[in-house]
């Protein structure tokens, strides 16, 4: 699977970008909303976050076809994602997507319309407009009690038909997210370490070409 899935999906939050809100008479589960609002409120109090994650790709038969580790750095709307020779960086004005295997960086302007969901938005209120959600039974994994929320996009034309967001009940952080596609593929993002208020400088969120000798720049701005 070339470049794994990160370049195309830009981490979990961004895969939902561009969904259009549809009118629905189905009410959201207030218990699920309370949990999600709690995660959002806590995240907004943090100055910065560094989180390690594991991304697993599963086929239709639930067999793991690939697994990669990565790290996401967040400070306000700014973010940087690193994973096995790939980097995605945004200072909320410009975004850089770097592929190590071809030593190439693609530069774009950040969409300011609010349609795309960034890693930071993933931990806040991305769920309000584009999803219907309900609370599923709790589970226990690795000693953590998880509150599982099933989310379905209001735009049924999208390839994604369901997302399960698992919240660490004690820590009030997103612990895991599983994305289900109509083609049978599943993507599971598991947060293995979450460090609030980590020392992260603004330089983290700017691509410095000097650190990548010979890099080819594709500027699409």
Task: Provide a descriptive summary of the structure in words.
- The protein is 14% helix and 43% strand.
- Strands 1, 2, 3, 4, 5, 6, 7, 8, 9, 10, 11, 12 and 13 form a 13-stranded mixed beta sheet that branches.
- Mean pLDDT is 81; it is low at 1-25.
- It has 5 helices and 13 strands.
- It is mainly β and 221 residues long.
- It has a single domain (6-16, 25-199), classed as outer membrane lipoprotein receptor (LolB), chain A.
Summarize the structure.
The chain has 221 residues and is mainly beta.
Radius of gyration: 17 Å
Apparent shape: globular
**Gross CATH architecture:** Clam
Domains (count): 1
Query: What percentage of the residues does DSSP assign to strands (E)?
Result: 35-45%
Largest sheet: 13 strands, mixed
CATH superfamily annotation: Lipoprotein localisation LolA/LolB/LppX
Poorly predicted spans: 1-25
Q: Determine the N-to-C terminus distance.
A: 28 Å
> What is the top-level CATH class?
Mainly Beta
Structural class of the secondary elements?
mainly beta
Taking all residues together, what is the mean pLDDT? 81
Tell me the total number of β-strands: 13
Fraction of residues in H or I helices? 10-25%
CATH topology: outer membrane lipoprotein receptor (LolB), chain A
Series of secondary-structure elements, N-terminal to C-terminal: HHHEEEEEEHHEEEEEEE
Oligomer: single chain
Number of H/I helices: 5
């Amino acid at each position: 699977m070339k470049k794994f899935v990160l370049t195309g999906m830009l981490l979990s939050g961004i895969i939902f970008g561009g969904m259009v809100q549809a009118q629905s008479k189905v009410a959201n589960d207030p218990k699920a909303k309370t949990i999600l609002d709690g995660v959002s409120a806590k995240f907004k109090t943090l100055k910065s976050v560094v989180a390690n994650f594991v991304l697993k790709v599963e086929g239709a038969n639930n067999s793991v076809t690939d697994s990669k580790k990565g790290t996401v750095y967040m400070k306000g709307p700014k973010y940087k994602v690193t994973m096995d020779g790939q980097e995605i960086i945004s200072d909320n004005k410009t975004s850089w997507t770097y592929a190590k295997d071809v030593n190439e960086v693609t530069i774009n302007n950040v969409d300011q319309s609010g349609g795309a969901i960034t890693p930071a938005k993933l931990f806040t209120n991305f769920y309000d407009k584009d999803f219907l959600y309900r609370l599923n039974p709790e589970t226990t994994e690795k000693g953590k009690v998880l509150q599982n929320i099933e989310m379905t996009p209001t735009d049924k034309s999208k390839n994604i038909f369901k997302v399960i967001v698992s919240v660490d009940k004690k820590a009030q952080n997103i612990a895991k997210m599983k994305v289900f596609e109509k083609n049978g593929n599943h993507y599971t993002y598991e947060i293995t370490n979450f460090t609030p208020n980590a020392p992260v400088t603004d330089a983290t969120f700017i691509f410095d070409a000097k650190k990548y000798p010979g890099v080819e720049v594709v500027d699409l701005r």
